[in-house]
Design brief:
687 residues; alpha/beta; Immunoglobulin-like; TIM Barrel; 8-stranded parallel barrel; 5-stranded antiparallel β-sheet; 16 helices; elongated
Amino acid sequence: MDHWDKIEGSPVHLGATWIPSENAFNFAIYSKHAEHVSLLFFTEENLKEPVFVFQLEPHRNKTAEIWHCRISAVEIEHAKYYAYQIDGPPPKAPFERHAFDPEKLLFDPYSRNIFFPPDFDREIASRPGPNMGRAPLSVLQSIECVFNWENDEPIHHTSDLIIYEMHVRGFTNRDNSGVSEDAQGTFAGVIEKIPYLKELGITAVELMPVFQFDIQDGNYWGYMPLGFFAAHDGFCMSEETCERHIEFCEMVKALHSAGIEVILDVVYNHTGEGNESGPTYCFKGIDNTTYYSLTGQPESPFANYSGAGNTLHTSNRAVRKLIVDSLHFWAKEMHVDGFRFDLASILTRKTDGSIEETNPSTLGQIGSDTSLADRRFIAEPWDAGGGFQLGSRFPGHRWMQWNAAYRDTLQQFVRGDEGHVADLMTRIYGSSDLFPDDCMHALRPYQSVNYITSHDGFSLYDMVSYNEKRNWANGHHNTDGTHDYSWNCGCEGETDVSPEVMMLRKQQVKNFFCLLMISNGSPMFRMGDEFLQTQGGNNNPYNQDNETSWLDWSRLDTHRDMFRFVKRIIAFRKSHSSLCRSHFWREDIHWYGMARDVDLSTTSKALAFCLRGAEEKDNDIYVMINAAPTPGAFGIHEGTPSDWKRIVDTSLPSPQDILELEEAKPLSTAQYNVQGRSVVVLIRNPQ
């Protein structure tokens, strides 16, 4: 007697699995509440009429909550695409808001590739009724997309970690990006720019979402995912399924060959289906009450801790499995080195929406998975529902975290706000208030991802060029976007900027980069900040797939002096391991002011410190910071003047603003006149 699985299918592996020995596919999909499930197959030539339909019988094709079947390739003829139609009970109690529509085509949540037909229509998906020929479909893959990884292995940087936040399309989509025309805005374009990343000193790229998203949603950033296993087709050159898979793998392999980690910004907190008014592509129609958190309120049934219309029900075991399976796919099959979790506090929310502070099931399942143990996890430790778990409050205790406190303190201090000297000391030290290293917590400074700007907010140049955001083009009457502690240096925007204002702006940007690179923790900055990329004052261009968001590579030529400074300050950090240690500096740092003692008064805007490097077999480093508009005479309170060489002075023009050690000369006096709004870094001569 033949095996049952060969007749009825297997529930073990979700999605579509090709079985060469049987010349057949196994299909499996989770739907706890479904009552009728059909599987439809389409050819390339006819997307409106299925070439084959299989009705799943619950007594044969359902095991627990999983529907499954085994279908021979002969039966589906030349079909290339498939989709489900699922029916079930109508809405019942408030927390059983079923959204079954038996006429809707639904793609497989485990699809490795999602196809949008020429007549795709988001609007039809947002209304009840059929959308045959106009719905996204899952792509059948009867062969494995074989890629030769050779000896490729995961990469994990430590003290030399420099994270570069990048949007794949925006990085190279302009004609002046210098990449071949076909590769502009694609994974292949990233490959062509690897020499640039190497020259800059980048050791990790953090790619903004690459999961497939709705091509008619208008969300350029990609934070409205549809499929958690499929790469976005818009980032690929080829239209062939396997080629798309291979293009992503080629990018990862090339970055690894250059010693660069690949971190994906992943969105496991919501989907692009939105709320009750949004489209039905997949999860809503498969099992709404399983996949989404509900409120029980008819007027607003979908919980919205994401700010995007819905919230994935991550405390549900089926959703947790979906997330972990997705992580496995990207880590093991696509060789991704790490993940940055968007709005990660949602992963700690229980079914009722409250936050599980100590042992949330989703984070626990991710953290205890041994096959993911060698991957980097980074949390955005808050959500749009008021959850804020920065530091030791976040229950993923080994995770790194975006440190918003670092961002806010640095923005305010460099702007010249009063009362931030103590905060600045804490942030430079590694944010020990948030990541305590007492015996109970034993947290580490490198868990703090230090950043001043990210995709959320102004670019670094706009931070010093605009007092007010310019978000009118986004369509929300300039009410959207974050609050940045920006200052325009005396002239709003890009019109009629005097040489003096431009010099001050560059000086402020150098201050930001210098402080970022001499802080304990893991530094991150956004693409283009190294050559003063501007978004015209738009601090939330999530829907601007145009020159507002695409890097303008002509600015690299215009601002070569800034690129040189950033490249050298990165190299400086990487050559001094004492700056980024696995532990806090403790007794190796001594804090000073302009005088010997730190001035912690409200009006103080000055700070200095000496970091001793003997423990790391490194030079001693002396830093003087003056955020006041006027010069300050800083005493040098360690060693003799001739012990020290000035490496950085952000008030000086290029190339004097940053020097190599052999280019610098010993100081002649025990005092240094630090100009207003500038940072000075000294190195003690090797003994």
